[in-house]
Amino acid sequence: MIELIVLDVDGTLTDGGITYTNSGEELKTFDVSDGLAIATWTKKLNKNAAIITGRKSLIVEKRAKELGIKHLYQGVHNKDEVLENILKEENISWSQVAAIGDDLNDYKMLKKAGLSFTPFTGSNYIKEIVNIVCNSSGGKGAVREMIEFIVKEDGIEEDFIKVWL
């Protein structure tokens, strides 16, 4: 059973685009359906989630808080090492982890996760090693697709749906 979902940001929670304003502020766009699924996972099903990303952004910090994501690590080079520390803290194993990422900096983490995903727009190198290539693109519902797959596989789909009925 999956106890922790691990999310990359650029290219996974977003479409990978980064927009800067004239004043240098960074803008990102997140998919609301991904957000609803994540919030249901964390706040309603009381499951853990982590964001581990290579870049740093105040926007990501804000998004993590509003979705109830317990573990947030930004500016990370070795994602698998950070995740190993989370596993120790939560007292869970790699087999209880589902992770989604889209590019080479996610490779080692995805190889170790019990269940691994990439958006449809993920790198071909990543598509070759993950368990599931989503039909949805990054920032366009891929994380939602991952969570729906997990709740079906783990037999908690009814609990996931009942939250909103």
Describe this structure in words.
- The protein is α/β, with parallel strands linked by helices and 165 residues long.
- It has a single domain (4-49, 68-77, 94-162), classed as HAD superfamily/HAD-like (Rossmann fold, 3-Layer(aba) Sandwich).
- Helix content is 38%, strand content 16%.
- It is built from seven helices and eight strands, in the order E-E-E-H-E-H-E-H-E-H-E-H-E-H-H.
- A six-stranded parallel beta sheet has the order 5-4-1-6-7-8, sandwiched between helices. Strands 2-3 form a two-stranded antiparallel sheet.
- Helix 4 links the parallel strand 6 (97-100) and strand 7.
- The longest helix has 13 residues, at 32-44.
- It starts with a strand and ends with a helix.
- The mean pLDDT is 97.
Summarize the structure.
This protein is of the alpha/beta class. The chain is 38% helix and 16% strand. It has a single domain, classed as Rossmann fold, CATH 3.40.50.
How many E strands?
8
Residue runs with pLDDT of under 50 for 5 or more positions: none
Name of the CATH first level: Alpha Beta
In CATH, the topology is named: Rossmann fold
Q: Helices and strands, in N-to-C order?
A: EEEHEHEHEHEHEHH
Number of helices: 7
| Secondary-structure content class | alpha/beta
Tell me the strand percentage band.
15-25%
SSE blueprint:
Layout: E1 4-7, E2 19-20, E3 26-27, H1 32-44, E4 48-52, H2 58-67, E5 71-73, H3 79-90, E6 97-100, H4 107-112, E7 115-118, H5 124-127, E8 132-133, H6 142-153, H7 157-162
Parallel strand pairs: 1-4, 1-6, 4-5, 6-7, 7-8
Antiparallel strand pairs: 2-3
Helix pairs in contact: 1-6
